[in-house]
Amino acid sequence: MRHSKQREIIHSIVQGTQTHPTADWVYNQARKELPNISLGTVYRNLGQLVESKTLNTVNVDGIIHYDAFLSNHQHFQCKTCNQVFDIEVNTQDFISQVESKTKYKIDRCQIHLVGICEKCQNN
Question: What pTM value is reported for the model?
Answer without folding.
Answer: 0.81
